[in-house]
Specification:
By secondary structure, this protein is an alpha/beta fold. The protein is built from six helices and ten strands, in the order E-E-E-H-E-H-H-E-H-E-E-E-E-H-E-H. A hairpin with a 6-residue loop joins strand 7 and strand 8.
């Protein structure tokens, strides 16, 4: 065994009811992630970590495996994704299933591209993690905030006021699609914090954080545009 894909998908989303299995362009949104990973043929197993029988049923219908049930103590709103992946790795080890490379794949990643995940698997040979990222549309060095006291708009860094935006270093954010890591890194390190983390840059047209209904609707619009281009 060499590679494992884990898709965390707990029940209990507050802002979008049943988000992980809500229909997105004709199929449960988690199905897009499952099918893309299976189609890539890069992983020995594609496992969904869930606390929900309903999500488990949908996941197996689309080809993923349910090899354990996620316990209640790591199924809450404040549980970190690293903890969920580590639980999956340790639980599978107890079943004599150990992997050199583990990919965290988000359940709400309908824009997941096989070429991107393939590039991540290739890059992992000389790094700890490989993460999907996307470039901020506007330089964050010129970001603004509203003062709680005066309600005035101010710059977070006033020293950047005179600088041209094209002279500022580009900044990136997590694209929320996948994190590929080595066995050792998942067990002892954290992406971006104390690790060697390489980027897979995803264009903004294929990135959408989905936390609210408005986000969901925008994701559907972007998805339609991507399909038309193809």
């Amino acid at each position: 065994m060499t590679r494992l894909a884990i898709i965390p998908a707990r029940a209990g989303s507050k802002r979008i009811l049943n988000k992980n299995i809500k229909s997105f362009h004709g199929k449960p949104i988690i199905a897009w992630s499952i099918e893309a990973i299976l189609k890539s043929k890069l992983f020995d197993k594609v496992v969904v970590s869930t606390n929900s029988e309903e999500i488990a049923k949908v996941s197996t219908d689309f080809g993923a495996e349910i090899l354990f049930k996620r316990p209640k103590n790591i199924s809450g709103d404040h549980t970190g994704i690293i903890e969920v992946v580590r639980h999956g790795i340790k639980t599978l080890e107890k079943q004599n299933l150990k992997y050199k490379v583990i990919a965290l794949v988000y359940a709400t990643a309908p824009f997941l591209n096989i070429e991107d995940i393939s590039n991540a698997v290739e890059l992992i040979s000389d790094s700890d993690f490989c993460v999907s990222v996307s470039k901020y549309d506007y330089p964050i060095q010129r970001a603004l905030f509203i003062s709680e006291d005066t309600k005035n708009i101010q710059m977070i860094d006033e020293t950047q006021f005179e600088r041209r935006s094209q002279d500022l270093r580009p900044s990136y954010h997590d694209a929320g699609q996948f994190v590929v890591g080595t066995y050792g890194a998942w067990n002892s390190k954290v992406p971006f914090v104390n690790s060697i983390t390489k980027p897979i840059i995803i264009p903004n047209s294929r990135v959408q954080d989905i936390d609210t209904i408005e986000d969901w609707e925008l994701a559907e619009q972007k998805f339609s545009m991507v399909r038309k281009r193809k």
